[in-house]
């Protein structure tokens, strides 16, 4: 049995972040044209490969593969897996239908945020045979084995899946979260296409890899699907497993690792053991990680830098304590300031994520965020429109009074971060003001002559120059042309 793991293309953009499971993905020039390897798709493919199945991964975007060319190949596959989300589900379903039209015996399987929170809506779409809710590794293996045996009755015993049963839709009981994270294998990066050249403006050393060493999120943010998607209880790889992956990646020639954990710095005891191993084994690589404010101190940052960390990425969201509180962010403005101050003192680069149009937003709170960006002075920023995705508390609250939101799939890639119509329902500012504020913030931050000069003076080799020009042009296109 030959199984295809597919990263579909989009008619709306040339790049989409489809690497993590929960789904609130970014796209386009707003993020400097960055791309990320399909890490979660790789994880599932690795599980099936290790169990004797023949697997192939195709990234249509990275390989510049047209749908017409893919259709010509689809007869060689029996099953296709796609990681999808609220903002990609309609395009993905269209592509899967086209593949099934060419190969009617093809079984299509999707997983990700939208199948998890809107399973019936997904299965109602042509082209979709099966959905997997929440974590996909164990359910995928059981599902493929059931399909291979050809006994339809076996499907009823696969926890965490949904499927069409004649004219009805069957949704099996939930599958428990994977208790032992070490049982999740290290993703087989040899499955990545040799044509793929993943670019990310945050990366300095290529080739780079992404990694996910934990699952779950302790946050309560009302705009995020992560806790419901992966659970509020943290599960994580052991220090030994993390070191094993680092050594594997270095052996493959990777020079930088981007840790995609929601809260990498939460696991202080484990991380200390990791850092001690990095130093004792003299492992040479640079790395980036996501940080939750309040989970580390200056000495933690100092040790991280000593072990190769060169940038932290922080979900700041807003410069208004009122807005952070309404969103249940559970962080204090003063703690954010302290974190960035420590990083400046230690020479660690920082990237700050912001969202405009959060619940309760006003012109006054947006102005506070403008000023806060200046105050904490991150090296880079990105700003998105706070969007009510299926699976978030924000979506559920909105749907009670605004049923027109339906399953949320009208928030597709054509309007992601370019439209703020729903924000009028939970903010005090007009949608066009939110979008203009994002433009203004980008212009003010990135178009400063001193800022540009600082970046130019930091260039150490021709590759860095190429990357700077590429990401700079992408941000400029976003500001000027809204791609």
Describe the 3D structure:
By secondary structure, the chain is α/β, with parallel strands linked by helices. The chain folds into two domains: 170 residues, Response regulator (Rossmann fold); 245 residues, TIM Barrel. 38% of the residues lie in helices and 16% in strands. It contains 17 helices and 15 strands. The strands form three sheets. Strands 2-1-3-4-5-6-7 form a seven-stranded mixed β-sheet, sandwiched between helices. A six-stranded parallel β-sheet has the order 8-11-12-13-14-15. A two-stranded antiparallel sheet has the order 9-10. Strand 14, helix 13 and strand 15 form a beta-alpha-beta unit. It is globular. The two termini are 40 Å apart. The model has no long low-confidence stretch (mean pLDDT 90).
CATH architecture of the largest domain: Alpha-Beta Barrel
Can you give the helix content as a percent range? 25-40%
Note the main sheet.
7 strands, mixed
Cα Rg: 22 Å
Going across the major beta sheet, what is the strand order?
2-1-3-4-5-6-7
- The CATH superfamily of the largest domain turns out to be Aldolase class I
């Amino acid at each position: 049995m030959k199984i295809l793991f597919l990263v579909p293309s989009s008619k709306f953009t040339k790049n989409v972040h489809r690497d993590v499971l929960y789904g609130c993905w970014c796209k386009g020039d707003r993020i400097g044209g960055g791309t990320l390897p399909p890490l979660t798709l790789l994880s599932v493919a690795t599980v099936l490969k290790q169990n004797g199945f023949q697997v192939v991964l195709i990234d249509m975007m990275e390989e510049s593969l047209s749908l017409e060319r893919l259709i010509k190949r689809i007869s060689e596959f029996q099953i296709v897996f796609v990681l999808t989300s609220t903002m990609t589900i309609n395009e993905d379903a269209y592509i899967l239908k086209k593949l099934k039209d060419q190969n009617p015996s093809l079984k299509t399987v999707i997983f990700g945020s939208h199948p998890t929170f809107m399973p019936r809506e997904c299965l109602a779409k042509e082209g979709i045979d099966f959905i997997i809710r929440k974590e996909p590794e164990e359910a995928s293996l059981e599902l493929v084995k059931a399909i291979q045996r050809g006994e339809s009755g076996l499907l009823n015993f696969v926890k965490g899946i949904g499927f069409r049963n004649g004219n009805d839709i069957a949704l099996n009981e939930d599958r428990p979260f994977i208790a032992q994270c070490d049982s999740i294998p290290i993703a087989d990066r040899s499955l990545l296409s040799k044509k793929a050249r993943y670019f990310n403006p945050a990366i300095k050393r290529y080739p780079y890899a992404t990694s996910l060493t934990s699952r779950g999120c302790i946050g309560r943010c009302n705009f995020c699907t992560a806790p419901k998607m992966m659970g509020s209880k943290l599960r994580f790889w052991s220090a030994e497993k993390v070191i094993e992956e680092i050594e594997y990646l270095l052996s493959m020639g990777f020079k930088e690792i981007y840790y995609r954990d929601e809260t990498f710095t939460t696991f202080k005891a484990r991380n200390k053991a990791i850092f001690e191993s990095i130093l004792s084994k003299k492992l040479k690589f640079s790395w980036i990680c996501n940080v939750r404010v309040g989970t580390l101190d200056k000495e933690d940052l100092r040790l991280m830098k000593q072990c190769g960390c060169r940038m932290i990425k922080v979900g700041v969201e807003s410069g208004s304590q009122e807005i952070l509180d309404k969103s249940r962010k559970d962080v204090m403005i003063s703690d954010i300031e302290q974190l960035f101050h420590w990083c400046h003192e230690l020479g660690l680069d920082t990237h700050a994520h912001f969202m405009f149009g959060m619940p309760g937003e006003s012109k006054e709170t947006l102005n506070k965020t403008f000023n806060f960006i200046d105050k904490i002075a991150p090296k880079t920023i990105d700003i998105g429109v706070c969007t009510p995705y299926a699976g978030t508390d924000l979506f559920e609250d909105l749907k009670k009074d605004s049923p027109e939101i339906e399953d949320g799939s009208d928030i597709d890639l054509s309007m992601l971060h370019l439209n703020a119509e729903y924000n009028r329902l939970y903010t005090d500012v007009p949608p066009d003001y939110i979008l203009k504020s994002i433009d203004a913030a980008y212009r003010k931050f990135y178009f400063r002559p001193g800022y540009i000069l600082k970046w130019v003076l930091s260039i150490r080799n021709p590759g860095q120059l190429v990357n700077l020009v590429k990401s700079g042009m992408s941000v400029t296109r976003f500001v000027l042309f809204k791609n």
